Amino acid sequence: MRLVVPKDHLSTMDGLTVDVIDEDINDAVGEVRFEKGVGRHVFLYNRYKGTVQTHEECVAFVKGVQTVLEYMID
User: Fold this and answer.
1) How far apart (Å, rounded) are the C-alpha atoms in residues 41 and 50?
2) In angstroms, what is the C-alpha Rg of the chain?
3) What would the DSSP string read from start to end of 19-32?
4) Which long-range contacts (CB under 8 A, 24 or more apart) does 19-25 make?
5) Which of 4, 16, 41, 42 could form a disulfide with 33 if both were Cys (CB 3.0 to 4.6 A apart)?
6) What is the pLDDT of residues 1-46, one digit of tens each?
7) CA–CA separation, 18 and 73 (whole Å)
8) pTM score, whole prediction
């Protein structure tokens, strides 16, 4: 499992949605939605949700979910 938040995510255009990709299976496993004045809403596997302010926080949230899931699988 290698979850990646695209570099397009640096843009904060209101209403923009970008996919979070698992590079191992080359498929979208979630998305990031931008909402002006609120931040970035992150959704992964239709189960894990968070709201963050910056690109770095978004990457940290995604990597945190990846770490927990990898721990549960092993």
Assistant:
1) 6
2) 12
3) EEEETTTTEEEEEE
4) 20/44, 20/62
5) 41
6) 999 998 765 556 778 899 999 999 999 999 999 998 899 999 999 9
7) 27
8) 0.87
Q: Where are the domains of the chain?
A: 3-73
Contact at 8 Å (CB) between 6 and 21? yes
CB 10 within 8 A of CB 55: yes
Give CA–CA dist 44/64, Å, rounded. Answer: 11
Tokens of 30: 């979630």
Judged by phi (left if over 0) then psi (alpha if -120 to 50, else beta), residue 45 lies in left
